[in-house]
């Protein structure tokens, strides 16, 4: 098990290096750079930057060097100094910008994930066991609706309802009086209250998806001969349900855990803009618009890392869950 | 006390059946109509004896065997009477009707695995790949025999030894995929017999195995039958296995038992054209190589909205037009223990009676 995990981690390293290269290349692709977008802003503000000014600025920021050199410097600093570069937009190191938003981003993501699994798995089991019942149709209809509804639309609708019913659209993650307050019990409660809408909005599509996957898996498993065997042994239906089909149906859910981790981070961008959430999505969006290349690059790299990490986690979990895979590498 | 034992002995002598199935019907609602998968099946199994239920794929033999312990899917609408004699355990009660029990209830669950155990065709899929063989065996022993984990494990290990699996301690903690096909079926048998059942239902127990392993598994079943004195309902399409294992044979075709007789009668004095056809299609030792095996022409019709007629009519070489396709076929007794569903014999009998 340990050997397998180490092997997988080592194998992930070249993948990450390759991804970092592609990420950097992609950020370079759009025409212009930070300086040109900065000068455009200046022009709009009434100040004209001369070509000399722009060249001077490029030299200062290191943007006049060839791409591969910029890449080498960027990576070298990340690996040896933990320095992800400088955010031009925020005028501070990328790492500080990321840090500032990371805490709440993690809170929103993790709560959303918990919400997804806690809602989707039981509903998936229920709809499979009671296939074609009224409950099944209700939840299936709801989950198709959930998959089809655009996030931002749902966000706006929920905000409208929360405003008409509670007199507060619950924008952002905190009420005004708590934004800059120190952490206290009341602040946590306030945060939880504000989390309800974002979590539902961000999580709904993947929850609906997960319900479908879990339902399909359960239906497969419920008709397997091992369920008939279990029944012929005299086990109770409840015991059979949880010990055999449910346990087996969880494997594919676990193996998709890796993608859902990063998709929650990226998928929340539009929602975060609409709901005015202080999380990474909008920051990333602004960085891309303003060609704030190091911030955008670090963010993309971080996303890629999360995907690799998530896949790694699900592979290891799956190896732990599935006896067949377990014996395969125990044998080696 | 003495009278009771005497009575019990007397019962056994009378050949009081352990299991008696009467007019079993299974209907399945399909998109294009109602399928009469099993249509009025009657048979009896006596204590310690083996009944072979033979027929081709889709004739309803598996459904019949599963109906006994009520483990068919809920789409199967089952009617009839399945009497099971629980008196053998000492409580002097009348046979109970297994079909009248709630298929999810406690009563039937205390019979499943305990009094009536079952082994399945595909040992690969009949075990769950998620748990060790030991786990799946102990689970059943702990429901019926002992709550104690250690004791249950001891019983399981003992059973694994009985079915010829060596190195039980290690095997106990292995997963089904680490077993070979034959081993898995042995483990399946070990599990089924771990609660000393009175009746073992074996649903094509050797179909998925190669021939040498088949012989071993059958031998094993026979020796265990002698040791435990249980009755066996053997479901198969292999007449060779029937000849080797069974006391009595019921030949099933299209949801009906078309012929029922002791095993020698079936092989030496078959009556129904279908039984004859089956026997002709068996390869024989010493037969000429160049001669093609006989086959039964045509294929089995779907039993959906069938008019009252003989199901074998289309394929029968001896059919009587206007008779076989006009009415449903009644059961005819040829002798005390030989019955057949065929107009060829009912006419004869009527003729004799007149």
Automatic annotation (TrEMBL), chain A:
Organism for this UniProt entry: Cohnella terricola
PROSITE patterns, per the entry: ABC_TM1
UniProt similarity note: Belongs to the binding-protein-dependent transport system permease family.
Protein origin, superkingdom: Bacteria
Keywords carried by this UniProt record: Cell membrane, Membrane, Transmembrane, Transmembrane helix, Transport
Family annotation (CDD domains): TM_PBP2 (cd06261)
Pfam families named in the record: BPD_transp_1, BPD_transp_1_N
GO cellular component entries: plasma membrane
GO annotation (BP), single: transmembrane transport
Domain ABC transmembrane type-1: 102-318
Membrane-traversing stretches: 9-27, 101-125, 137-163, 195-214, 257-279, 299-321
Primary subcellular site in the record, as a coarse category: membrane
Protein name as it appears in the record: ABC transporter permease
Classification via SUPFAM superfamilies: MetI-like (SSF161098)
Entry-linked InterPro entries: BPD_transp_1_N, MetI-like, MetI-like_sf
Membrane topology recorded in Swiss-Prot or TrEMBL: Multi-pass membrane protein
Cellular compartments annotated: Cell membrane
UniProtKB/TrEMBL annotation, chain B:
Topology class, membrane: Peripheral membrane protein
Location of the ABC transporter domain: 19-279
Highest rank taxon of the organism: Bacteria
CDD domains found in the cross-reference section: ABC_NikE_OppD_transporters (cd03257)
A GO CC term attached to the entry: plasma membrane
Main location: membrane
Record's subcellular location: Cell membrane
GO biological process, one term: peptide transport
A Pfam family the protein falls into: ABC_tran
Naturally occurring in which organism (per UniProt): Cohnella terricola
Protein name: ABC transporter ATP-binding protein
SMART domains cross-referenced by the UniProt entry: AAA (SM00382)
NCBIfam families referenced in this protein's UniProt entry, alphabetically: oligo_HPY (TIGR01727)
InterPro entries (UniProt xref): AAA+_ATPase, ABC_Ni/Peptide_Import, ABC_transporter-like_ATP-bd, ABC_transporter-like_CS, Oligopep_ABC_C, P-loop_NTPase
Record key words, sorted: ATP-binding, Cell inner membrane, Cell membrane, Membrane, Nucleotide-binding, Translocase, Transport
Family, per entry: Belongs to the ABC transporter superfamily.
Gene Ontology MF term list: ATP binding; ATP hydrolysis activity
SUPFAM superfamilies linked: P-loop containing nucleoside triphosphate hydrolases
């Amino acid at each position: 098990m340990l050997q397998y995990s180490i092997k997988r981690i080592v194998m992930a390293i070249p993948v990450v290096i390759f991804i970092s290269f592609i990420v950097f290349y992609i950020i370079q692709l759009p025409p212009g750079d930070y300086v040109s977008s900065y000068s455009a802003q200046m022009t709009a503000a009434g100040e004209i930057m001369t070509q000399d000014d722009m060249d001077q600025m490029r030299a200062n920021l290191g943007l006049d060097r060839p791409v591969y050199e910029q890449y080498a410097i960027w990576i070298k600093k990340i690996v040896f100094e933990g320095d992800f570069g400088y955010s031009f937009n925020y005028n501070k190191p990328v790492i500080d910008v990321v840090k500032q938003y990371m805490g709440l981003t993690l809170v929103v993501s993790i709560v959303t994930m918990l919400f997804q699994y806690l809602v989707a798995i039981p509903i998936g089991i229920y709809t499979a066991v009671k296939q074609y019942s009224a409950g099944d149709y209700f939840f299936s209809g709801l989950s198709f609706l959930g998959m089809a509804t655009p996030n931002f639309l749902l966000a706006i609708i929920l905000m409208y309802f929360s405003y008409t019913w509670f007199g507060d659209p619950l924008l952002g993650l905190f009420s005004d009086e708590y934004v800059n307050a120190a952490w206290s019990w009341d602040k946590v409660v306030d945060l939880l209250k504000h989390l309800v809408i974002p979590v539902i909005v961000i999580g709904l599509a993947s929850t609906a998806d997960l319900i479908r996957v879990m339902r399909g898996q359960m239906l497969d498993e419920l008709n397997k001969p091992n369920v008939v065997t279990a029944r012929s042994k005299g086990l109770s239906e409840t015991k059979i349900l949880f010990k055999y089909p449910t346990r087996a149906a969880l494997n594919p859910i676990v193996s998709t855990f890796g993608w859902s981790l990063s998709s929650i981070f990226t998928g929340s961008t539009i929602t975060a803009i609409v709901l005015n959430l202080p999380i990474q999505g909008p920051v990333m969006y602004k960085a891309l618009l303003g060609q704030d290349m190091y911030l955008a690059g670090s963010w993309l790299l971080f996303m890629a890392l999360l995907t690799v990490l998530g896949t790694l986690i699900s592979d290891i979990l799956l190896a732990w869950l599935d006896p067949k895979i377990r014996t395969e590498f125990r044998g080696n | 006390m003495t009278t009771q034992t005497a009575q019990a002995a007397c019962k056994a002598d009378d050949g009081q059946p352990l299991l008696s199935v009467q007019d079993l019907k299974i209907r399945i609602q399909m998109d294009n109509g109602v399928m009469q998968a099993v249509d009025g099946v009657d048979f009896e199994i006596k204590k310690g004896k083996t009944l072979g239920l033979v027929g081709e794929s889709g004739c309803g033999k598996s459904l019949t065997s599963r109906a006994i312990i009520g483990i068919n899917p809920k789409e199967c609408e089952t009617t009839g009477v399945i009497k099971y004699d629980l008196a053998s355990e000492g409580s002097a009660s009348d046979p109970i009707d297994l079909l009248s029990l709630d298929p999810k209830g406690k009563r039937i669950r205390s019979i499943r695995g305990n009094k009536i155990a079952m082994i399945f065709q595909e040992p690969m899929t009949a075990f769950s790949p998620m748990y060790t063989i030991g786990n799946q065996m102990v689970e059943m022993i702990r429901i019926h025999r002992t709550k104690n984990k250690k004791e249950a494990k001891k019983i399981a290990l003992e059973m694994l030894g009985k079915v010829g699996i060596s190195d039980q301690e290690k095997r106990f903690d292995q997963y089904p995929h680490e077993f070979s096909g034959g081993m898995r079926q042995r483990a399946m048998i070990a599990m089924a017999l771990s609660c000393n059942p009175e009746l073992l239902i074996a649903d094509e127990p050797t179909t998925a195995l190669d021939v040498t392993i088949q012989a071993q598994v059958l031998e094993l079943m026979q020796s265990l039958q002698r040791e435990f004195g249980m009755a066996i309902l053997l479901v198969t399409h292999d007449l060779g296995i029937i000849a080797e294992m069974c006391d009595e044979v019921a030949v099933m075709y299209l949801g009906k038992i078309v012929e029922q007789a002791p095993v020698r009668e079936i092989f030496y004095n078959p009556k129904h054209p279908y039984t004859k056809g089956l026997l002709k299609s068996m390869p024989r030792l010493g037969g000429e190589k160049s001669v093609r095996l006989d086959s039964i022409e045509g294929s089995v019709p779907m039993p959906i909205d069938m008019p009252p007629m003989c199901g074998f009519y289309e394929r029968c070489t001896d059919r009587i037009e206007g008779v076989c396709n006009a009415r449903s076929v009644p059961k005819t007794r040829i002798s005390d223990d030989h019955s057949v569903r065929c107009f060829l014999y009912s006419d004869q009998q009527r003729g004799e009676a007149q």
